[in-house]
Design goal:
The complex is a heterotrimer of chains A (321), B (284) and C (502).
Chain A lengths: L1 H28 L15 H11 L5 H14 L12 H36 L4 H15 L2 H15 L16 H36 L1 H8 L4 H38 L5 H10 L3 H29 L6 H5 L2
Helix pairs in contact in A: 1-3, 1-11, 4-5, 4-7, 4-9, 5-7, 6-7, 7-9, 8-9, 9-10, 9-11, 10-11
Chain B lengths: L13 H27 L31 H36 L2 H16 L2 H12 L3 H28 L2 H8 L4 H37 L11 H8 L7 H29 L8
Helix pairs in contact in B: 1-2, 1-9, 2-3, 2-5, 2-7, 2-9, 3-5, 4-5, 5-7, 7-8, 7-9, 8-9
Chain C lengths: L39 E6 L13 H8 L8 E3 L5 E3 L2 E6 L5 E6 L13 H12 L14 E8 L2 E6 L6 H5 L22 E7 L3 E6 L12 E6 L3 H9 L5 E2 L9 H4 L4 E6 L4 E6 L9 H10 L2 H9 L28 H10 L7 E7 L4 H13 L4 E7 L1 H10 L5 E6 L20 H11 L4 H17 L4 E5 L2 E6 L2 E2 L16 E2 L1
Parallel strand pairs in C: 1-10, 1-11, 14-15, 14-16
Antiparallel strand pairs in C: 2-3, 4-5, 5-7, 6-7, 8-9, 9-10, 11-18, 12-18, 13-16, 13-17, 19-20
Classes of the chains: A mainly alpha (321), B mainly alpha (284), C alpha+beta (502).
Chain lengths: 321, 284, 502
């Protein structure tokens, strides 16, 4: 386990480094000068020169790259071109919205998906099992913003049960108000996300129900519940956890659209605004943080998977991943 | 992360399998038919603004009109074209790039393989929507930007799947036998690898088509998709959002068509998987 | 999606004389019963400041939130268009009209505690004129030759040529503390509010300033909530997340407020015009007949109806009814498809032509462009719509003049004078008009100025210099327990200090 851990950490560090390189190249290779971001508000040639100097786009590319790596290493993400506010603290204040939204939605999706997926598999030949399977099919086909709009229309505008959007100005100073504002966004994300999770849980459960070890255990006199508990859940959870890792990452980044629908000041809406204003330090900072988050989530999911599934600890299998 | 290989969901019974495929073909076929018909005939010219503002259904307009007085059904038909064009264009691009990269990684030396795997992990960390937004920021919103962006995004997923599948095939005894008997690499690819990889890939590409169609709608919803006067379903939804209480049909109809198409494509994928993968056929 | 208006900065030719009364109560709502002076007012808006300094490109939003609320000028532009003393107690003009002696209030303190002096005023005017200034008003002050500060309470400005709108223009110059730092992210003004917290992308809060020299604000705190989309903004009002919307941009939601006793819909005067601006330098739009034909081929009334339902009004020229030199010119180039066809044939385009329309990507431009495409197809003209972002518009159209035709909303009042500048982006070049505009600015009386600008107005309409599609409505929607909010939002100002909540 320890050599694997070391190798996996080394791999994580390398991917983080490569991701920063990729991001740097991607943004620098875009046509146009990042300093052009200032043109939208009426810059003179002197100002453009000053802007180029300030953001360093008048420097040679290798030097810009060294500067960028230094920034990444010290977590100093520069200042927004538009508002001149530092990017790092702004991202931190956005994470206060996006992280709870992601985690709550994720938790709710798991709470919905595990029992529903299990029932859909265990009772797949009954009408309700089939119905649940069909509903999950519908769920993965629905665009998330559409669900958001429908929920707003029904629960916020018609029934007045929840706010239509926004977030308290003082963030989590009054947790009740903040949670209240997150209800509909969380439900929106969780509904859509649980649909694909249900399908994975259902599939994993079907595989376990089919498996020889479960039949053997039952033939040896274990009750269904205890056989499932001792063998089934552990086995079914392996593929599901790896999917959970991917889904968690997707939710985190998929928040872009949901935050737009609900006017939430999260990381996603910061990115949309940054793109609209061609505010390169903001785009760069948000993408860096979100890419790092996704890679770290993947790392944690891999670790969790290995801890649960001893088979993966076998050296030859580890090497082939 | 080998989980993307164990493709989920399968039909519980043999009979339902063909039903899955049939229903999927009917749903997706409906949208394809709509798109094909729209090439030859439309109820109204695309930019005809002769209708009233937000007129209800009936009175010459099957589903009513939008804010500018354009026939909603006409716009929906044109929207089907854009959904299918972006979806299939992106999947074609993603398929070609992904399979090529996956094959390369599968055959490559350990070192190169690790490098490609790391690159794919990073690419997947940039989700489709973000890549698309970056591209749009750089090149402006256009149909081509949307296709390229979504295609690039899905190529990473396809590449990762191909790589794992290729590795699995290459470790099989019959490939080892072929290699020891001196068969050339291209022949091994053509005769052993592709035929065995293909069925799973087709299923995955079908799933990717659904993802691509949804991604295009999201991009258009954010105002980053195909620009007007192309009527994308995503943008129709965005525009109709303001009138969801007064003219709900405009906000519902594009969503329904979008869902029908994606469900149809996903059902086809499920149906194909059952046909393609005989091990799934055993009934429980 | 992005509702950021590209404000085109009218070198406002104006007069210190009050405009004719607009016929509406300057303050919204009726008098309320009990009011709470410690209330928090939640204001919903689509226009977020880009930063807090209006000479550093803060945009339309910074004017809306901070002008008059946090920063004050020597003179105040009232909601009815008149100008009155604010930080100045009065001024004298020399007989040649070239020297302005302005007296300052003595009891004014900045939020940092420093007392206001003439040095701050000089610093602030210089800040607008500085080479790196992005102030919308920079070009209005080209006549300024010298600023002197004989004592702490007197400022003497010398002009190179007469400028009848000088005092009006000063109403746009914020007075900063000359020692303040980091003005893009913090403030030091003299207004009734201090900036509380600014959460970029979400909210900006203003807190009542205890040391204010004038009448204290009638509420303790104002929070501006920023939205990127009109629907989300309306939803916030419907669910009481905000008390008032500064400028309604979606007519479809209004039915929910008009028939609801909890809300009041106020229809004020706007100065925002939607233009189909031709590049008058290049073919085919260098031909007046072609411009007239296009103008006559588009049914502006139906366009307005499509975008705004029953709100807004038609204009036949650049001048809105609130400007003193307004005339109804909607009949000059009437909607008449046959006339358009005749004019096209006469101009040598009997079968029409094809042109590209550069269209900003935010509402209402894409929808309006789609409508225009359909209308012009009827007279054989093919329109290719090219969607561009706000900064692309600025570079391509505004700076490089690399376009054939474009659409843009122009928000300022008194901006007809741009037709006197042949180097302006639309390239309208009529020496007579240029002359009239110059004379108008140097006129001795407001009557002379008005007469000259009327001539300008008539001439540009005759020449169809641009196609002025319509004048936006200015709709402020507020909950009925709110009073004292501005109705006209002139130049996107929004004074909040008189707002009361009961």
């Amino acid at each position: 386990m320890v050599p694997y851990l070391l190798r996996r950490v080394a791999f994580l560090v390398v991917t983080l480094f490569l991701a920063s390189v990729a991001l740097f190249l991607l943004l620098r290779l875009l046509p146009g000068d990042p300093a052009n971001a200032l043109l939208s508000v009426g810059a003179t040639p002197q100002q453009i020169a000053a802007a180029r100097h300030e953001i360093g786009s008048d420097q040679p590319l290798p030097q810009q790259f060294v500067t960028w790596l230094g920034q990444v290493a010290t977590l100093n993400l520069g200042h927004s071109f538009v508002s001149t506010l530092p990017v790092g603290p702004q991202i931190a204040s956005r994470l206060v919205v996006t992280v709870p939204l992601t985690l709550l939605a994720f938790a709710l999706a798991v709470v919905i998906a595990v029992p529903v997926g299990f029932v859909a598999a265990y009772r797949s030949r009954r009408w309700y099992g089939a119905l649940l399977g069909g509903l999950s099919q519908l769920g993965i086909a629905v665009p998330v913003f559409w669900v958001g709009v429908l929920l707003i229309t029904v629960f916020a505008l018609k029934l007045r049960l929840a706010p239509a959007g926004g977030f308290p100005q003082d963030d989590w100073a009054s947790p009740g108000a903040a949670l209240n504002d997150l209800i509909l966004p969380v439900v929106t994300v969780a509904l859509v996300m649980s649909a694909s999770l249900i399908r994975y849980v259902r599939s994993a459960t079907l595989d376990v129900l089919d498996s020889d070890y479960l039949r053997t255990a039952r033939a040896l006199g274990s009750s269904f519940v205890s056989a499932m508990w001792r063998h089934g859940i552990r086995n079914a959870s392996v593929p599901v956890i790896s999917i959970l890792g991917i889904e968690l990452a997707t939710t985190f980044l998929g928040a872009v659209v949901v935050e737009s629908v609900f006017a939430l000041p999260g990381l996603g809406s910061m990115l949309v605004q940054g793109i609209a204003e061609h505010d390169y330090p903001v785009i760069q900072g948000v993408l860096l943080v979100s890419t790092f988050a996704v890679l770290v989530i993947g790392f944690l999911a891999d670790l969790a998977q290995r801890i649960i599934d001893p088979r993966l600890r076998a050296p030859h299998l580890a090497a082939s991943r | 992360m080998s989980a993307s290989v164990s493709v989920p969901v399968r039909a519980p019974a043999r009979r339902r399998r063909s039903v899955t495929l049939t229903v999927g073909c009917v749903l997706a076929g409906l949208i394809v038919a709509l798109a094909i018909v729209s090439l030859f005939w439309l109820p109204y010219p695309p930019s005809d603004v002769s209708g009233g503002r937000l007129a209800g259904p009936g009175g010459g307009h099957l589903l009513g009109t939008d804010k500018l007085g354009r026939d909603l059904f006409t716009q929906l038909m044109i929207g089907s074209r854009i959904a299918l064009a972006v979806g299939s264009g992106a999947v074609a691009l993603g398929g070609i790039l992904g399979v090529a990269a996956g094959l390369a990684a599968g055959f490559a030396t350990r070192w190169l393989d690790d490098a490609i795997a790391a690159a794919l992990d990073i690419l997947i960390a940039f989700p489709v929507l973000l890549v698309a937004m970056l591209l749009v920021a750089a090149r402006g919103a256009s149909l081509a930007s949307a296709i390229v962006a979504i295609g690039l995004g899905s190529s990473a997923v396809v590449a990762r799947l191909t790589r794992v599948l290729v590795k699995r095939i290459l470790s099989q005894d019959f490939v080892t036998a072929a290699r020891t008997s001196g068969t050339s690499w291209p022949r091994i690819v053509l005769e052993h690898v592709l035929p065995n990889v293909w069925p799973t890939l087709v299923v995955n590409l079908a799933l990717q088509l659904g993802v691509a169609v949804l991604a295009e709608a999201s991009l258009s919803y954010l105002g980053l998709g195909a620009p007007p006067p192309n009527e994308s379903w995503g943008r129709m939804l965005q525009e109709a959002q303001a009138t969801v209480l007064t003219a709900p049909l405009g906000a519902i109809a594009p969503g329904v068509l979008l869902i029908l198409l994606v469900i149809g494509v996903n059902l086809i994928a499920d149906g194909l998987r059952d046909v393609a993968d005989p091990t799934r056929r055993r009934s429980r | 999606m992005n509702k950021k208006a590209v404000a085109l900065f009218g070198a406002a030719i104006a007069t210190v004389l009050a405009l004719a009364a607009c016929g509406t109560n300057p303050n919204g709502g009726s008098s309320a019963g009990s009011t709470d002076t410690n209330s928090t007012i939640n204001v919903g808006s689509l226009y977020e400041p880009q930063n807090l300094d209006d000479t550093a490109g803060g945009g339309q939003g910074v004017t809306e939130a901070l002008n008059g609320n946090v920063y004050e000028s020597l003179f105040k532009l009232n909601d009815d268009g008149s100008v009155s003393n604010l930080l100045a107690t009065g001024y004298q003009v020399s007989s040649d009209g070239l020297t302005y002696t302005i007296n300052l209030r003595k009891d004014v303190k900045f939020h940092s505690g420093k007392a206001l002096t003439s040095a701050d005023v000089k610093y602030s005017i210089d800040k607008v004129l500085a080479p790196d200034s992005q102030s919308a008003r920079k070009s209005s002050f080209t006549a300024v030759k010298d600023i002197a500060t004989p004592d702490d309470n007197t400022v003497v400005v010398t002009l190179a040529s007469r400028s009848i709108s000088f005092v009006y223009n000063l109403s746009y110059v914020w007075i900063f503390n000359d020692e303040a730092k980091n003005l893009t992210t913090t403030e030091d003004g003299t207004g009734p509010y201090q900036v509380g917290t600014w959460k970029r992308g979400s909210t900006l809060s203003l807190k009542r300033f205890a040391g204010y020299w004038g009448t204290s604000a009638t509420n303790a705190q104002v929070v501006f909530h920023y939205f990127t989309d009109a629907t989300a903004l309306n939803n916030a009002l419907l669910t009481n997340a905000v008390d008032v919307v500064t400028s309604e941009q979606s007519p479809d939601a209004l039915s929910q407020f008009t028939n609801n006793k909890n809300y009041k819909v106020n229809n004020g005067h706007s100065t925002t015009k939607l233009l189909l601006a031709f590049n008058d330098r290049v073919a085919p739009f260098n031909n007046t007949l072609v411009r007239k034909a296009v103008t006559s081929a588009i049914d502006d009334k139906k366009l307005l109806q499509s975008i705004w339902g029953n709100y807004g009004s038609l204009i036949g020229s650049m001048v809105p009814p609130t400007d003193p030199w307004y005339e109804d010119l909607t009949k000059v180039n009437p909607y008449d498809v046959n006339l358009a066809k005749q004019e096209l044939a006469q101009a040598g385009y009997p079968n029409g032509f094809t042109f590209t329309l550069d269209t900003p990507n935010y509402d209402p431009h894409p929808a309006a462009a789609t409508f225009i495409k359909a209308e012009l197809a009827k007279v054989g003209i093919t329109v290719n719509i090219n969607i561009i972002t706000a900064d692309q518009w600025y570079t391509k159209v505004y700076q490089n003049h690399d376009f054939v035709a474009t659409m843009q909303e122009h928000v300022n009042d008194r901006d007809v004078v741009w037709y006197g500048d042949p180097s302006f982006y639309w390239g309208y070049n009529n020496p007579q008009v240029t002359q009239w505009v110059k004379q108008a600015e140097q006129s001795a009386t407001a009557a002379d100025q008005t007469a000259l600008l009327k001539k300008v107005n008539e001439q540009i309409a005759k020449d169809a210099a641009s196609d002025w599609l319509y004048l936006y409505p200015q709709i402020v929607v507020a909950s009925t327990n709110l009073t004292g909010y501005p109705l006209n939002g002139l130049n996107s100002q929004f004074y909040v200090y008189d707002i009361k909540k009961s």
